[in-house]
Design goal:
- The protein is mainly α.
- The chain has helices spanning 20-26, 40-61, 70-96, 103-123, 131-139, 144-159, 167-176, 183-201, 204-208, 218-224, 235-240, 263-277, 283-302, 314-327, 343-351, 362-380, 415-421, 425-428, 451-462, 466-470, 510-514, 517-526, 545-559, 569-582, 587-594, 601-604, 612-619, 638-641; strands at 5-8, 11-17, 30-34, 430-432, 435-439, 477-478, 486-489, 504-507.
- It folds into four domains: 5-61, no CATH class; 70-211, no CATH class; 249-395, no CATH class; 409-662, Orthogonal Bundle (hpI Integrase, Chain A).
- It has 28 helices and eight strands.
- The chain has a three-stranded antiparallel sheet with strand order 1-2-3, with helices on one face. A three-stranded antiparallel sheet has the order 6-7-8.
- A hairpin with a 2-residue loop joins strand 1 and strand 2.
- Helix 12 (263-277) runs antiparallel to helix 13 (283-302), helix 12 packs across helix 16 (362-380) and helix 19 packs parallel to helix 24.
Length: 663
C-alpha cells in the first residue's frame, strides 16, 4: 500500500486519494490508472514516479505561486551579467597582451556581438535583422559589412546550438533562485539570459575604453582609508587552490549590494573542500554539512522569502532553528527523497507522525548549528559582515544537568540474558540462509557464517563498537604479526572511527578462534573480498553497515526475550566493560580495550598502550558464555559464496555481479 498499487486480473493498477487542493478542480475523490504491467517490481517503480508527480502537482495547486517573482528574475539577471562581464574582461585582457591586438577591431567585434544579442533580446530565439533594426544599427555606426556580420553571428549561434540556450543552463539559473523549473519559468529564464548577455556586451567602453565605474573616487578612498590595503596572497596559494567556484562575494560587500541566497551554498562547498584538504572532515561529514546548508537556504527562500543573503538576520535564523526543533520529521535526511521535498511538505510530513517523532533531538540540532557556525565564520571572513552579528550559541540545545549518572542512563544487560542470545537459532541451527532466525529441523546443526553469527560473539569478547566490527576489512584482522592474532581498529575505506583513541588493537579470545573466526577470515581473503562481512553490503545504499546488522539482530534479541529499549548490540559492549570491572581490571586498562580516552594527563599522555599479550590476559578474565556452541566448517551464505549482489539491494540501482574490489 505504500506504493498505492493493487492487482486486478494479473495487471497492476495505481490508485491515490486526490489531494484536497486538486479535488476541487478534479471533482473525483480518487485518481487511478492501469500501469499496464504484470510485474510487481515494475509496478512499484512506476507508482513511485506517479506519486512524486502527483505530489508536485498538488503542491503547485495548493496556493504556492510557481511563477518567478521580480526578485528571483533580478537574481538570475545579476548572475548572468556578473559571469559574462568577468568572462569578457578576461578575454579583453588576454587580447590586449597579444602583439597583434587591434583596438578598433576588438571594439567593433564587441559591438556586433552586442547587436546580435540585442536582436535576440527583442525578438526571441528566432531573431532576424529587420528594416527598422538595420536603420538603428546604421545610426550606431555599423556599416553594411558589419550588419552582414551580425546576421552571420546569429547564424553561428544557431549552428553551434547556443540558441536556444541549453536547458540545463536555464534550469540551473532557476534553481539558483530557489524557483521551480516550470515551462513558463524556463521561458522567462531564456529571456533573462539573453537580456543579461546584451547588458554585458554593451559595456565595450569598459573593456576597450578604460571607462570603469568602480574607478571613480578609488584614489580618494585609498588615501582616506585608515588601514593599509590588504596585501595580496602569496602566489603559491593561487597556484595550489582552485578558486574557480568561489562565490561572487569574495570581496567585502558594499552597502546595499544584492547577494543571492544561493551563494551561501558556494561558501559551504568551499568550506567543505578546505576542511577535507586539512584532514578535518571525511566524506560523510562533508555530506552532512552540505545537507544542512541546502535545507537552510531552502527554508530562507521558501518560508522566510529571503532572497538576499546580506539581509539575513538573527530572527530569520531563529525561525529556522524552531523549524528544526518542533516541525521537521525526526529522522530527516535518512531518505534521499527528503532533500527534494519543499519546506511545507516537510512540515506536513512532521505533522503526519506522532509528536514524539517530530523535531530533531538536542545533539543532532547542535551538530547542525556547528556546521552552520563554521559556514557563517567562513563567509564572514570573506566579507559578509551581517552574518557576524548572528549568534548561533544562544540557539543551541542546552543540557541543564542530567538526572542520572552516566552509568545509569542505559539499562544493563545481565550476563544470563546475554547467554540467551547465543541460545538462539543463528548460533545453533538455522532453518536456511534466508531464515537465519528460524529454527531448523530437529537434530540438525546448520550454521551460516556471516555477520549475524560472528559480530555478537566479537562484541562480547572484544568490547568493540557495532560499526567498528561491521565495517572491518579482511586486512584489519592481523594473523601474521607475532604469535597472537588480533583485530586492528582504525579508519578504513568503508567507515571512520569515533575519535582518535578509538584506534587500537584487540586480541582474539580463544573462544573466537575456536568458533572458526580465523578460518572464516582466510576463506573471505581467498575469495577476493576486501570487506570482512560482505553480507551487510549493498551497492544501492550509503547507510552504515551496522544498521543492516541491527535489522537482522533485532529479531534475535526478541527471540532471547530481550525487548527493553536500549538493550541491543551496545548493551553487549557495556556488558564487556562491566564484567572486566568485576574482575578488578583498572579503569585505564578497560579504556585501552574499549577505545576510551584517559581522564588525566598521566593516564592520557604519559603512557603507552598495552602489548597484545597483556590485552589478551585482560580479555581472558571474561566468562566464556559461548562454551556450549559447537564449531563447524565454514558455511557461507550462497550469494556471498557466489559473489552476487545482496538480495536486499535495490535491483534498479545495483550491479548484477560484484568484483572483488567492490566488496
Amino acid at each position: 500500500m505504500a506504493f498505492h498499487i493493487f492487482r486486478r486480473q494479473a495487471v497492476y493498477y495505481w490508485r491515490r486519494r486526490t489531494p484536497p487542493a486538486l479535488a476541487i478542480r478534479y471533482g473525483r475523490p480518487h485518481v487511478s490508472m492501469s500501469l499496464r504491467t504484470t510485474s510487481r517490481m515494475m509496478a512499484r517503480r512506476l507508482a513511485t514516479r506517479l506519486n512524486m508527480i502527483l505530489d508536485d502537482v498538488a503542491m503547485l495547486a495548493d496556493g504556492a505561486d510557481p511563477h518567478l517573482s521580480r526578485s528571483q528574475i533580478e537574481t538570475m539577471l545579476h548572475g548572468v551579467v556578473h559571469r559574462h562581464l568577468a568572462k569578457l574582461d578576461r578575454v579583453a585582457l588576454a587580447a590586449k597582451s597579444s602583439p597583434d591586438f587591434h583596438l578598433e577591431q576588438a571594439r567593433a567585434d564587441d559591438k556586433k556581438a552586442y547587436w546580435a544579442y540585442a536582436l535576440l533580446d527583442a525578438q526571441g530565439v528566432k531573431a532576424v535583422v529587420r528594416a527598422e533594426d538595420r536603420s538603428r544599427m546604421v545610426q550606431d555606426g555599423l556599416s553594411e559589412t558589419d550588419i552582414a556580420a551580425v546576421q552571420d553571428h546569429l547564424a553561428m549561434l544557431r549552428a553551434n546550438e547556443l540558441i536556444p540556450t541549453k536547458h540545463h543552463i536555464l534550469r540551473t539559473m532557476i534553481e539558483g533562485a530557489a524557483a521551480i523549473p516550470t515551462a513558463m519559468n524556463i521561458a522567462e529564464a531564456q529571456g533573462t539570459y539573453l537580456r543579461g548577455m546584451k547588458l554585458a556586451l554593451a559595456e565595450h567602453d569598459r573593456r576597450y575604453g578604460g571607462t570603469r565605474v568602480e574607478d571613480e573616487g578609488l584614489v580618494d578612498r585609498l588615501i582616506l582609508a585608515k588601514n593599509d590595503p590588504p596585501q595580496p596572497a602569496p602566489s603559491i596559494v593561487g597556484a595550489l587552490v582552485d578558486r574557480s567556484s568561489d562565490p561572487t562575494t569574495t570581496a567585502p560587500a558594499a552597502v546595499g549590494q544584492f547577494i543571492p541566497m544561493a551563494d551561501f551554498l558556494q561558501f559551504a562547498e568551499r568550506l567543505a573542500q578546505q576542511q577535507a584538504a586539512d584532514g578535518n572532515w571525511d566524506e560523510k561529514t562533508q555530506r552532512q554539512a552540505k545537507s544542512i546548508s541546502k535545507l537552510f537556504v531552502k527554508f530562507m527562500v521558501q518560508d522566510q522569502r529571503i532572497l538576499d543573503l546580506s539581509s539575513l538576520t538573527q530572527e530569520h535564523v531563529g525561525r529556522f532553528v524552531d523549524f528544526l526543533r518542533f516541525d521537521i520529521y525526526k529522522h530527516y535526511g535518512k531518505s534521499v527523497r527528503d532533500e527534494k521535498l519543499t519546506i511545507e511538505q516537510l512540515r506536513e510530513k512532521g505533522r503526519s507522525v506522532e509528536k514524539g517523532k517530530r523535531g530533531l533531538d538536542g545533539d543532532t540540532l547542535n551538530r547542525h548549528l556547528s556546521f552552520l557556525g563554521q559556514e557563517f565564520d567562513y563567509a564572514t571572513a570573506r566579507g559578509l559582515k551581517n552574518l557576524e552579528s548572528i549568534n548561533l550559541t544562544k540557539l543551541r540545545s542546552k543540557n541543564r544537568g542530567k538526572t542520572k549518572r552516566a552509568r545509569d542512563q542505559r539499562p544493563k544487560l545481565p550476563i544470563d540474558r546475554a547467554m540467551a542470545i547465543f541460545q538462539t537459532a543463528p548460533f545453533i541451527n538455522s532453518a536456511s540462509w534466508d531464515a537465519l532466525g528460524e529454527w531448523g529441523m530437529e537434530g540438525a546443526r546448520q550454521l551460516f557464517h556471516c555477520a549475524l553469527y560472528f559480530v555478537p560473539i566479537l562484541i562480547y569478547y572484544t568490547g568493540a563498537r557495532r560499526e567498528e566490527l561491521c565495517g572491518l576489512m579482511v586486512d584489519d584482522v592481523i594473523l601474521d604479526n607475532g604469535p597472537l592474532p588480533y583485530i586492528h581498529i582504525a579508519k578504513n575505506q568503508q567507515r571512520r572511527i569515533k575519535n582518535a583513541q578509538s584506534q587500537r588493537n584487540l586480541p582474539l579470545h580463544p573462544e573466537v578462534i575456536r568458533l572458526e573466526f580465523i578460518a572464516y577470515v582466510k576463506v573471505m581473503k581467498m575469495l577476493g573480498y576486501e570487506l570482512l562481512f560482505p553480507d551487510l553490503h549493498s551497492p544501492s545504499t550509503r547507510s552504515p553497515l551496522g544498521d543492516r546488522f541491527y535489522k537482522q539482530f533485532k529479531p534475535i534479541l526478541t527471540a532471547a526475550e530481550i525487548t527493553e529499549n536500549g538493550l541491543g548490540a551496545h548493551a553487549v559492549r557495556h556488558l564487556f566493560g562491566a564484567q572486566l570491572k568485576k574482575k578488578k581490571l583498572s579503569e585505564e586498562d578497560r579504556a585501552d580495550l574499549l577505545g576510551h580516552g584517559g581522564e588525566s594527563e598521566t593516564s592520557e599522555r604519559y603512557c603507552e598502550p598495552h602489548e597484545i599479550e597483556t590485552l589478551l590476559e585482560f580479555v581472558m578474565k571474561l566468562p566464556a558464555i559461548t562454551a556450549h556452541l559447537e564449531p563447524q566448517a565454514i558455511n557461507l551464505l550462497p550469494w556471498v559464496k557466489d559473489k552476487q549482489v545482496a538480495p536486499f539491494s535495490q535491483p534498479s540501482r545495483s550491479k548484477r555481479a560484484l568484483k572483488p574490489a567492490d566488496c
